[in-house]
Design a protein that fits this description.
alpha/beta; Aspartate Aminotransferase, domain 2; Aspartate Aminotransferase, domain 1; 2 domains; globular
C-alpha cells in the first residue's frame, strides 16, 4: 500500500534521538528550547513555544488570547476538528466560515459578509485561519478585517511549514497574533508527535509557556510571594502538561535541516501530477501566484464528466494499493457539532468540495515508479477531457 503521507527517518535522525537518550535530560532540557528557537528563526518570528501536539498548541494559543466562556471562535469548516475544538476547550462558542472554491481555504469574501451581518455580541474574539494543504490564506485582507472588527488571529499552519505568503514566511506572524505548526509523521517534518506556536508578542509567548506546564513559573521576577529557596516555584494559573519531550525535540531538530529540500520535493511531485493529469476530467490544485505552497496534501476534485463517483474511485484506488484519503469531512457535519444546530447545507462550498475530493499520495520519498502507478490508474479510471 502506498500511503497518502509518510515520514522519512534517516540514520541522522536516529542518532540524534539516541544521543539525547544518553544525555542527562530526556524531558525539560535544552533540546526543546533549541527546537523552539530554530523554528522561530526559520519562519522569522520572535518567539517559539513547543508543545506535545499542535492540538495542545491551539488550545493554549486560544487561552493566551483570552478566549473564554461566552466568547466566539470562528474557523474554516474544511479542516481537522482540532481547529474548532480549541474553542470548545475554552468553553467558547464555535462558528464556521465557508471555503473559497478555488483554494479550499477560508473564503475572505464570505468572512467579510458574515462579519458584516453578525450581531456585535456574536462576533468572533478569535479567528482560526487554516492554511489548507500547505497554501496560505489571504492574510493581508483577513488582518484588515481583524482590525475593523477587533478579533485576534491564530494561523493554523499545521500543513504549511516551509511555505510562504507573498514575501513572508508562513509563521512570521506579520498578519496574525500566533501561528501553529504540527510535526505529526505525515506533516512536512516530524517529531513523531509535537507542535510549536510562534508569535512576536512576548506576553503571549510567556502565557503559553506557563499554560503548557501546569501554570507554573520558576522565574523569581514573576513570583507573587517571597522566594523561599532554590527549590521554590509558583503555580499562578491553571495549566496543563503539554510539554514536548527532549526526544521529540531532537528528532524535530534533525528533520528541520531537511525542511527546504522536503518542500522542494513536494512541489516537484505536485508539478508531475499537474502535468500528467491535466487531460483528465479533474480539478487540480490551484496555488495563487503570490504563494509558495508547502504541498502537505495534493487534492484532486472529480468533475461531473469524470465518469466515476468519489466512493467508487476511492475504493478502486484503495484496492489497487493506493492509500488515498479524504481531507476533510466538513467539521460542521460531525455529530458533535450537530448538537449546536449545524446541519447539511450550512456551508455549501465546503460540502460540494467534500463530495468530490480525493487526496493522492504525496511525500518526499514517493518514488517515480509509485507516482507513475498512481497516474496510470487514474488515467484508467477517470474519463479524459473531450
Amino acid at each position: 500500500m502506498i500511503p497518502y503521507g509518510k515520514q522519512e527517518i534517516l540514520d541522522s535522525d536516529i542518532n540524534a534521538v539516541v544521543e539525547t537518550l544518553k544525555s542527562p535530560f530526556i524531558t525539560q532540557g535544552p533540546k526543546a528550547q533549541e527546537f523552539e528557537k530554530e523554528i522561530a528563526n526559520t519562519v522569522k518570528a520572535k518567539f517559539g513555544v513547543s508543545f506535545n501536539s499542535a492540538t495542545s498548541a491551539l488550545h493554549c494559543a486560544a487561552l493566551a488570547l483570552g478566549l473564554k466562556r461566552g466568547d466566539w471562535l470562528w474557523t474554516s469548516t474544511n479542516s481537522f476538528v482540532a481547529s474548532a475544538n480549541c474553542g470548545i476547550y475554552c468553553e467558547a462558542k464555535v462558528d464556521f466560515v465557508d471555503i473559497n472554491p478555488r483554494t479550499y481555504n477560508l473564503d475572505v469574501d464570505a468572512l467579510s459578509e458574515k462579519l458584516k451581518h453578525t450581531k456585535k455580541h456574536k462576533l468572533p474574539k478569535v479567528l482560526v485561519v487554516v492554511h489548507f494543504a500547505g497554501q496560505s490564506c489571504e492574510m493581508e485582507r483577513i488582518c484588515k478585517l481583524a482590525e475593523k472588527y477587533n478579533f485576534k488571529i491564530i494561523e493554523d499552519a499545521s500543513h504549511a511549514l516551509g511555505g510562504s505568503y507573498r514575501t513572508y514566511p508562513i509563521g512570521c506572524c506579520a498578519f496574525s497574533d500566533i501561528t501553529i505548526f504540527s510535526f505529526h509523521p505525515v506533516k512536512i517534518i516530524t517529531s513523531a508527535e509535537g507542535g510549536i506556536a510562534t508569535t512576536n508578542n512576548a506576553k503571549y509567548a510567556k502565557k503559553m509557556q506557563m499554560l503548557k506546564s501546569h501554570g507554573i513559573t520558576k522565574d523569581p521576577n514573576d513570583f507573587e510571594r517571597k522566594k523561599q529557596g532554590a527549590w521554590y516555584y509558583e503555580q499562578q494559573i491553571i495549566g496543563f502538561n503539554y510539554r514536548l519531550s527532549e526526544l521529540h525535540a531532537a528528532l524535530g531538530l534533525s528533520q528541520l535541516a531537511r525542511l527546504e529540500s522536503y518542500v522542494k520535493k513536494r512541489n516537484a511531485l505536485a508539478k508531475i501530477y499537474n502535468e500528467s493529469l491535466s487531460d483528465l476530467e479533474l480539478t487540480l490544485p490551484f496555488v495563487e501566484s503570490h504563494n509558495y505552497s508547502a504541498f502537505h496534501l495534493y487534492v484532486i476534485l472529480l468533475n461531473k464528466k469524470s465518469g466515476i463517483k468519489q466512493k467508487e474511485l476511492f475504493e478502486k484506488l484503495q484496492n489497487a494499493g493506493i492509500g488515498v484519503q479524504i481531507h476533510y469531512i466538513p467539521i460542521h457535519l460531525q455529530p458533535f457539532y450537530a448538537r449546536f444546530g449545524f446541519k447539511k447545507g450550512d456551508f455549501k462550498s465546503a460540502e460540494t468540495y467534500y463530495k468530490n475530493a480525493i487526496t493522492l499520495p504525496l511525500f518526499p520519498t514517493l518514488s517515480a515508479q509509485e507516482q507513475q502507478k498512481i497516474i496510470t490508474l487514474l488515467k484508467e479510471f477517470v474519463r479524459k477531457k473531450a
